Fold this protein.
Amino acid sequence: MAGSEPAVKPGSRYGDLLPRILVGIALIALALGAVWLGGVAFALLVAVVVLLIYGEWCAMHRAGRTVRLAGMFALAGAVLFTHLGYLAYALLLVGVTAASLFFLARIAAWGVLYAAFPGIALVWLRAEPLGAQLVIWTLAIVWATDIAAYFSGRTIGGPKIAPRISPSKTWAGLGGGMVAAALTAWLLSRQFGLALEPLFAAALGAVLAVAAQVGDFFESHLKRRAGVKDSGSILPGHGGMMDRLDGVVPVSVLVAFAIGLTR
């Protein structure tokens, strides 16, 4: 959930704060509960989220029903394979599906990859030693980035990062998100017993905050090209599932890749 700072009317700088807080609390509680339970509960939640993301992607790009269904079956199967411990089969299924869709609807093929990789990454991370801690650590970094970027960006303001892509994103928001992510990564790595040196944990958190913001900009770019304000309307005050998880997409994949390299 990368830091989103939607434009607001003058005099109502925090006018959308209440629905964002209420929905945010509900989403965090749901995510933490599923992570704690693990197993089927977590895999099921990830599968639902992945399918919603792909559905929003296809709706934004007006993809046909056939490619939507093909992608959804592949995504559900990929999450199932990962949950059962067959990571190679999950990646193969996603790769074959994306390659097949590439010749029918190129944009849908990219949507399968966009939705699949974070879903596979999170389910795979949860099955690792200290899996619950790793997933919470990953999500908490994105949440910290989101919250700090929102408040620091709106409070401090200042120069915009890329106004043509996302008019309200400021360097102050990015800086606040990086500081919050660094502190979160450091504190939780100590609390969870993760084998990370303090300075490395903080630096990693800051880097992941940048990745979360890149995910936010990428999703903003997609919406501008599609001519839509939000990816969907399922989450009051937040828009669609893609709007809320745009930062989780790159961060979860990067964390899973880093863990995989150390095995």
